[in-house]
Task: structure prediction
Amino acid sequence: MADETTTQRAPEGGAPSSSGPRTGGPRGAGAQGAQGGRKFFRRKKVCKFCTEKIDAIPYRDVRLLQGFVAERGKIVPRRLTGVCTEHQRRLTRAIKQARNIALLPFAARY
Amino acid sequence: MERFYEVMFIVRPDVEDADLDKLIAGFEHTVTSGGGKVRSTEKWGRRKLAYTVRKFNDGNYVLMTIDADGNLVHELERRLRVSEPVIKFITVRMDEEQKRIDKIKAIRATRKKVSAQAVETAAAAETAEPVAEAAGA
Result:
């Protein structure tokens, strides 16, 4: 009993102080395979659509959308992918449309 | 004010190719007889679905781009819903999006022209300068 409480306490004590970089790093590396970095700061990340000047984000383009969808099918937040607000909104719309037409799953890998 | 739409629908995988063509022709006929125009029809072929739809795991995807008004789209959707081989469909309105894209492209084209003119004048100035220098010296 005493062991259980101590083991529970220790990760809790460690988590809040380093939860920022820890959750940011691996999740970032998981969501965007190209990054590979464990850096805390991701301010320099630019919006992929703004730099490549992609105008439209069609729901049919599954390969493009899959880069912004996590393994379980969830939409990746823009603080991890670095997409700007306007494009994130369009991206979300396209992903939801693609989900409706069974190009992307609603929830995968249970 | 012609609106144009993109209709994508999934047909059951166990229909024959001939039946699929007949089905698509039927929908095209619906559009044309209702006063619309079919811009293009694209068959994506058999694809694995991301989740099970009506107990099927893959299906034939078909993409149709049509010029139509709202009532015709309503009618087309009704037919898609009623037709038995079609298991899923989605209609997306594309004309506003296309307008926006065209606007952006137009702005970008004018911007490029201005910068190209600036480059030209700079190049002309550069070529003029050495000539002046040679003449002066």
User: Anything to note?
Assistant: The CA atoms of residues 14 and 98 of chain B lie 36 Å apart. Chain B has two domains: 4-93, 97-137.
